[in-house]
Amino acid sequence: MSARITSAGAFAALAHAFRLGWSETWAQRSALLGTFVNYAVILSLWANLYRQLHPQSLARASLGYAQVVWYLALTELVALAIGYAFRQIQDEILDGSVTALLVRPVGYVALTAAQEIGRTAAKIAALAVPGAALAYWLTGTAPFGAAVVPAVAVSVMAGAANLLAMQVLVGLSTAWFGTARPVFFIAQKLMFVLGGLILPLDAYPAVLVKIAWLTPFPAMLYAPASVALDPTWPHVAAMLAVQAFWLGLAWLAVVAASTAFERRYVEGGLAA
Amino acid sequence: MIVEAKGLTKTFLRARSEPFTAVSGVDFTIDAGERVAFIGPNGAGKSTTLKMLTGLLYPSAGAARVAGFVPWAERRRLAYEIGIVFGQRSQLWYHLRVRDSFDLLAKIYGLDAKLYRARAERITNVLQIEALLDEPVKTLSLGQRMRCEIAAALLHGPKVLFLDEPTIGLDVTAKALLREHLKHLAEAEDTAIVLTSHDIGDIEHICARVILVNHGRILLDEPLENLRASFLREKRITIVTEDERPEPFGAAVVVERGPHRLTLSIDASTFAIDEVVAEALKRLRVRDLTIENAPLEEIIRHLYRERP
Amino acid sequence: MNRFAWIPALGLANLRSELLRPWNAALLGAFMAINNFVWFGVWALFFGLAGDVRGWTLRDVTEIYGILAVAYGIYSAFFGGARNVALFIQNGGLDVYLGRPRSPLLGVLFSRCDPTGFGDIASGAVLIAWAAGSPAEWLLALVFATLGASVLVSVYVAINCLAFWTSARPRLCDQLFESFLQFAMVPQIGLPVFVTVLLYTVLPAAFIAFVPVEILRAFSLGKAAAVVAAATVFPAIAAGLFRLGLRRYASGNRALDVR
């Protein structure tokens, strides 16, 4: 009788992949250090710029210096924790090693995504405290209390999961375009603009805000950062709901893309 | 003498670990046109020795001269006199045609255009790679690429060609082809060859001299024929029989016994081969019988055990 | 034969390696250009709110970004192998270049061409054109960008040279370089003194785009001389570090275990 993997078995495999991603990230301390250096440089440089703005500039958007710095601390946390996750998928497709990975009983994309979630969770865990310490040092204050931290943490993970789904889709696009980089460039920069990486959407022109909310990008960056700035429960609930909506849609897209990818790879074959 | 090594030693310092001596007091000389194989197990010091001779590594002690230059002190000048082929690293330009890589190397080595073209034509004829010249390197099979790598390493007319595991990863046919070409090329160009390899076939088909290294020391430095002669005492007799399970006989050592097959090892200095053959014909229903020298592989393995 | 003929030959071979797939190169270049224009949108939004930062306007920052984009494009299109230095140190890839009778550093620099660099150069030139007050300023900005590329490549090489003496992995070197680029991208105004000193010395980010734009706003011979000096001194420092590191590479004693 041939063996078949059960749901419990598949879940255990995915959990193991998560743990693998988590532990290998912690083992690569120099890479974590490099990520934090990058984070600290970006946050400090932009905080320096914000510090020199006329106070009225930020006030026009109902923002203060401390708020924008903490906002940026959270958006950068999500953006840097994901990094270039699409590259593993791109490289495995291009060098053909995905062939061996496709014949496993647990899906290639599911395993890769689980491993990436582990990596992301590890990076968020590693960056969150020193990042918060840096933001506190730069601003001298924290715009939210300890009671809000769980909601912020959940929203940050939801934002990261949304962003990860995008990166998986970008990586899989290699199968159709021969490289994922062009798609990544556009997706990342659109995320920076429409997701409000540097400035909260509240500071944007109204028409751009409308356009942004039609995309998943605010769910990735703006939502978790704004939860920290406006921790009232209506706002938190609204942001979590938006993130949940896009999360469902994004991972449905990932399942569809994964099926299409396997079909294209197995039936169509891909040139080396 | 084209290569001379005296007391060559290399000790690596390692963080949180004892220093590791990869090569210890290695002495040898190689004459122009000679073909020498460095053999030994993994970690024996073969590649480390090669790297010191090509200027890629400083020795911890000792001296060497290659084509009149001290390798690690005069690396760039030495580069004009030697060619290096790495089995696992390419020096061709992956996306470009083979011809383009050759032209580029001609510029890097500052070769005279006429001389380069004449030489390239000669080498490509010997290596039979004319049909590959207009193919991108990335489309070549491993065997084809290795022949092109060797051609590339010879374009500037080096006096010594160093090859580090040149047949690694090649199939049997590609290996045979490469060995044949390499041997002819060395003879045609009067280039000394120094090669490291795990593959006994490389030694048997290309080289005339064997330097056996283990644990960083030279255990043996002999012409290949001397090596064979020292071990010619051992003969292998393979008998194919009608009997399904042929029984061994006499004092011969059984090397292999299988359905309808028996291989015996005989010390020819102790036993007369004709008597053993006669005994086999008497006791077994012989369909076929072969007498061979012990394979070189066995000789080498025996040497590893004998001289650790 | 011209004894320097190998340099342009090597550089051209590097370019041809990528341009043999013209559609792929065009796609990557075009999308990188779009990428840069979208990022310009971030600056536009920022200055839409801010108005100016201590007199620095969107035009000034766009010119900084444009010069940096061109400089970065020159690096990635022509000297893209700078990012390979740490990788080759760690995997022994330097051996191939050391076995040749020419500069191994130039060999490594010419070992990679990233076609996105052409997109950076094109979009950078467009951004400068939008920000510049005259064609002469545009041309001068491009000259500064070329000098800036020299500094940028030197810094990348120097960072990668860490791998000679430490166990710094290629990924860490890339991350440190990305941090350096952040300094070059953002106007260096109002920074703490020690940071400013760093940016004019050990981490010469100021010379890539910020000081050139200061010169374009108000010409200063001293600053122009400093930019030219930086473009010659830092490559010499990087080459010196590489040469020093090669001695360690050839000694075989690095922080990592023996290859």
Structural description of this entry:
The complex is a heterotrimer of chains A (272), B (308) and C (259). Chain A is mainly alpha-helical. Helix content of chain A is 77%, strand content 0%. Chain A has one domain (7-268). The longest helix of chain A has 36 residues, at 233-268. In chain B, strands 5-6-7-3-8-9 form a six-stranded mixed beta sheet, sandwiched between helices. Chain B has 308 residues and is of the alpha/beta class. Chain B folds into two domains: 3-229, Rossmann fold (3-Layer(aba) Sandwich); 231-306, Alpha-Beta Plaits (2-Layer Sandwich). Chain B has ten helices and 13 strands. In chain B, helix 4 (113-127) runs antiparallel to helix 5 and helix 5 (142-154) packs parallel to helix 6. Chain C is mainly alpha-helical. Helix content of chain C is 73%, strand content 0%. Chain C is built from 13 helices and no strands. Chain C has helices at 6-19, 22-50, 58-78, 85-91, 94-98, 104-109, 116-131, 135-160, 162-165, 170-185, 193-199, 210-217, 221-251. The chains are: A mainly alpha (272), B alpha/beta (308), C mainly alpha (259). The A-C interface holds A 28, 30-31, 33-35, 37-38, 41-42, 45-46, 48-49, 51-54, 57-58, 60-61, 177-179, 181-183, 185-186, 188-190, 192-193, 197-199, 203-205, 208 and C 24, 27-28, 30-32, 34-35, 38-39, 41-42, 45-46, 48-51, 53-54, 116, 167-169, 171-172, 174-176, 178-179, 182-183, 186-187, 189-191.
Write out key terms for the chains shown.
heterotrimer, A: mainly alpha, 77% helix, globular, C: 73% helix, disordered C terminus
